[in-house]
Amino acid sequence: MKHVTRSIFGGRLLMLSLLATFPLSTLRAQTAASYTAAATGSSLAAYNLLQPTTTAAVRTAGTADEGYYNTLPIGFTFRFVGANYTTVSASTNGWLTLGQSITAATPTNSLATGTPRPIIAPLWDDISFGTAATPADPALDGDFFYQTTGVAGSRIFTAEWRNVRWTPAAAGPVTSVMVRLFEGTNVVQFQYAAGTSGASGSTRSASVGLAGAAGDYLAASDLSATATFSSTTEASIGSRATSGRIFTFTPPGTPSATRGSVAKEGLQLAPNPAQGQVQVLGAEPGAVVSVFDLQGRLARRYSAASTLDLRGLAPGMYVLAAQVAGLPARTARLAIE
C-alpha cells in the first residue's frame, strides 16, 4: 500500500514539474480565434518588396489566374494554431496553407468552412497575376515570390503576391500583399500596398484572416487602420488597403508577451536591412526603444515600440534596445541601407 501511495505522490510531483516547465497557455490547444490581432500603418510605413534579385516561385499547376505553389520551404519550424510546420503551399488567390499540398486554387473564399485547413489569408478572393484574355504584359502583370531572411532564431519567411489584379478583369495591378512568418514568436503579419489601378471590373468580396479547424477563424472587418477582428463574423471585403497597412496576429502565450521571458527573447525587426522604417516585434507594451551606433552612442530614441521612422539615420549597423522600467532590455541588430 505504501508503494502505491509513493507512486501516486511521485506522479503528482512529475505533473507539478511539467506545469512549472511549460506555461499553462502552451498546454491548452491553440485556436485561430485565440490570436490577438492589431491593425497598424501610417504615411510613414512603407511596403517593402522582397529583394529585386528574388526569383519568382514556380507554379506547381494551373495559371496566373487559377494556380498554386506547393511545399515551399519556410526555412525554420513555424508553430501555427498549436502545430509545427516547415512548409507552406500558396494559391494565386491570396491564401496559403501549411504542411500540405494544394490541389485547387479555390477562388471562393470562406475562413469558416474552406479547405484545406489551416489557412492564412491576406486577401482571399478571385485575384490574378494577369488576365487570361490577353498575352502576358510584364509592365502590368505580377507574380508570386517568397524568401527567408535573418539569422537562426529570428528568421522571417515572407510570401508576396506582387501586383495582383483584384478581380482578374481589372485593367492593371490593384494591390500587392505579403505574409510574414516570424521564427520564435510565431507571429503572423500581413502587409499591403496599393497598386496603380483602382478599377476592379467586377465585385470584390475578400476574406482576410486566419483559420484553424472547421469553424475556428479570426477575420478582419476591412483593410483600414480601424479594422476589427471577429471569430464569429466573416466580413466580405471590397475596398483595398492604403500602402503601409499592416495586420499583426500574435498567438496566445507567446514568449514576447510574457514578462518573465523578457531577458530570454530578443527583438525581431522587419525588414532587416531596412530603408525608411522598420517594424519592431517582441517588445513589451509601452517599451521605450533606443537606437545606438556600434560605438555605443545614442542615435535616436522612440517613446513606443512599433513602426520606427528611420529617416535621417546614416546607413550602417545599429543596435536597438527596447526596455520597460524594472525589466531587462531586449535587443536586436539593425542594418540601415
TrEMBL record:
Residues 1-28 form the signal peptide. The lineage of its organism: Bacteria, Pseudomonadati, Bacteroidota, Cytophagia, Cytophagales. InterPro entries: Secre_tail. NCBIfam families: Por_Secre_tail. This is T9SS type A sorting domain-containing protein. Keywords: Signal.
